[in-house]
Amino acid sequence: MLKPFTDRPRRLRRNSLIRDLVHETDLKLSQLVQPYFLSTSKDAEAKETISEFSGVYRWGVDALAREMESQIDRGLSRFLLFGSTTEKDATGSAAVSQNASVAEAIAKLKKRFGDASLLFSDICLCPYTDHGHCGVIDEEVIDNDASIDLLCRMALTHAEAGVDFVAPSDMMDGRVGAIRKILDQKQFSDVGILAYTAKYLSNYYGPFREALDSAPQKGDRSTYQMDYRNQREALRELQLDLAEGADIVMVKPALPYLDILALFAKHSSVPVAAYSVSGEYQMVQLAAKAGIADAKSLALENLTSIRRAGADIIFTYFAAEIAEKGWLR
What we know:
Helix content: 25-40%
Order of helices and strands: HEEEHEHEEEHEHEHHEHEHHEH
């Protein structure tokens, strides 16, 4: 005879009405940001496939405007813009040009959508340098302070174009404070800073690097991106970025670093974002293609786990598909 139980957790799992009533973690479209890559082509109608990045494209600005309009109509209105150039050089000088693709796109998109869209812009030199590193190289070493000067100029160019948040992803020491200082000095105190606070040297970035042709030509980024063996170091980076004026802090990648997200959620006084990166996205696509998982179910499970770990905001390549197909209804 079975011993009677007083604790039966299954009572709260008995049917979907009960499960939905007592669930702990919500995933909402308003918490998601869709990254978009700009084409280096002069064709404003460009929509270029990326061979190892399923369903992700490089966009001409007019084609992107129509894509964004469709997403805004579906309730997705937050976007992150990445640019690149075919005219790469040692210092990434194209990144700070008023004619840079991202600055031009920001100006056109903000003129068209105004406050109906929220635009973040990537601040980093790697898509613009001929060596593929995120800063200026001096005798085979990344020159932290010289790189900051260029990053500040890039951020100011985007602010002048009308961006809502600049997002420095380079991992140079002190760049958040330097960017905040120049934005305030130039009367752009309303422009926010989304800091890539804990950005790890990761194997999950492959499709992204193809999208922007931004892989290092020599060596790796281990002297400036974080070592995946470290946790306490992330807390130090968090304390520094908060002191320097970050409005939002971010962990990248997301799934392998849920412990870091939980740490940030506990200690951060500002919203915490997570970037579910290209490798995380592509693994879902490949699993679905192989017939070993359902793309919708696996994507939503992954994103909900990121929310559950403590992310207030999630940057994900699934955002547009979630909006288009109504996965969160």
